[in-house]
Design brief:
This protein has about 325 residues and is of the alpha+beta class. The protein folds into two domains: about 110 residues, Phosphorylase Kinase, domain 1 (2-Layer Sandwich); about 200 residues, Alpha-Beta Complex (Aminoglycoside 3'-phosphotransferase, Chain: A, domain 2), CATH 3.90.1200. The chain has eleven helices and eleven strands. Strand 1 and strand 2 form a beta hairpin. Helix 9 packs across helix 10. The termini are far apart.
Length: about 325
């Protein structure tokens, strides 16, 4: 049985962040997180009606352990207080709206986890607004496009997560496209173990990956990308401004990797975020790689006790069909 943060620990952390006069009137563990716990804590007698508490406890991480993954790898699980703080600071310095940090604590005095208390952007996600308030969502989409322009125009000759590069650690691999290919081959193998449709087409999918990778030309300049930016990872504040969350994976990488994910997650609205100058060969390789990742990842998650199982099965099933469709001439 997983043990999540209790009210006593949350109370102590929030008091430290907001001052001893603040009181807790309610706690909700928010749905959706698979690597960290996210709690909305409603308060009284403080300047904030509510705050968000992040907990990077082992019990909050539903992903199976992968012992062989180099933590400096761009695709290593991006989780923890240090990656979060580096990403938050990096984006804030660029004028990209992210939740303000009220407390960051790695002392583990109050609970057996690194924690952060951040500003609560309680007006909902862009994903919800696209359905319920299209005019307000349109403004947020325009702003998101401007944010992405700023991010993608930040360049580095090195690729890797911003916390890894800031520490001066060496990022493995020889190129972004090679890392994507290697990961896609691993994802193909993992998906084939768990999905009979992928297993039947594994040889064809492997050949197609190699074929697409051979078309990609070398590159020595990389942009700053979120890495997993869907409309559910954009909050909209009371002024209608977009706020990026789940930022721990912020890294310098091929911007085509970001654009493939944006295309998948924003669907018909993606043209509002599309930009000229993207490399078609990278887009083709990265699209197939992303589809395979979105089969293997959810199915790996279902090897454990992740609670929202039907959603993960739907994601895996949809992307398996899309991956196989990419084999068609």
């Amino acid at each position: 049985m997983r043990q999540f943060m209790n009210d006593e620990a949350l109370s102590g952390i929030v008091h430290e962040a907001l001052g001893p006069g603040s009181g807790i009137v309610g706690v909700d563990r928010l749905r959706g997180g698979s690597k960290k716990g996210v709690y909305r804590v409603r308060t009284r007698r403080s300047h904030a009606a509510s705050v968000i508490v992040y907990s990077w406890a082992e019990a909050e991480n539903f992903w199976p352990d992968v012992e062989t993954v180099d933590p400096a790898h761009p695709f290593a699980p991006a989780s923890g207080l240090a990656p979060f703080l580096t990403a938050q600071r990096t984006l804030d310095s660029l004028g990209i709206r992210v939740p303000g940090v009220l407390l960051a604590d790695d002392s583990r005095r109050r609970c057996a986890a690194d924690v952060a208390v951040v500003e609560d952007i309680a007006d909902g996600t862009l994903e919800t607004l696209l359905k319920t308030d299209p005019p307000r969502a349109a403004k947020a989409m325009d702003e998101l496009g401007a944010m992405l322009d700023v991010m993608h125009q930040q360049h580095s000759r090195s690729y890797g997560r911003v916390d890894v590069l800031e520490r001066g650690d060496r990022t493995p691999g020889v190129s972004c496209e090679q890392l994507v290919l290697e990961r896609a081959v691993e994802d193909l193998a993992a998906a084939a173990e768990r999905d009979p449709r992928i297993r039947s087409a594994a040889a064809s999918l492997h050949h197609r990956l190699q074929e697409l990778a051979a078309r990609v030309s070398p590159r020595t300049r990389h942009g700053l990308i979120h890495g997993e930016l869907g409309p559910d990872h954009v909050l909209v504040d009371t002024s209608g401004h977009g706020v990026l969350i789940d930022i721990e994976g912020l890294m310098y990488f091929d911007v085509e990797w970001e654009h493939v994910f944006l295309q998948l997650r924003f669907g018909d609205r993606y043209p509002l975020l599309s930009r000229p100058g993207l490399d078609p060969a990278r887009l083709d390789l990265y699209m197939l790689a992303m589809r395979l990742s979105l089969v293997a990842g959810p199915l790996r998650l279902l090897d454990g006790d992740f609670p929202h199982r039907s959603v993960m099965r739907e994601i895996a099933d949809h992307n398996a069909k899309e991956a196989l469709a990419l084999l068609a001439p």
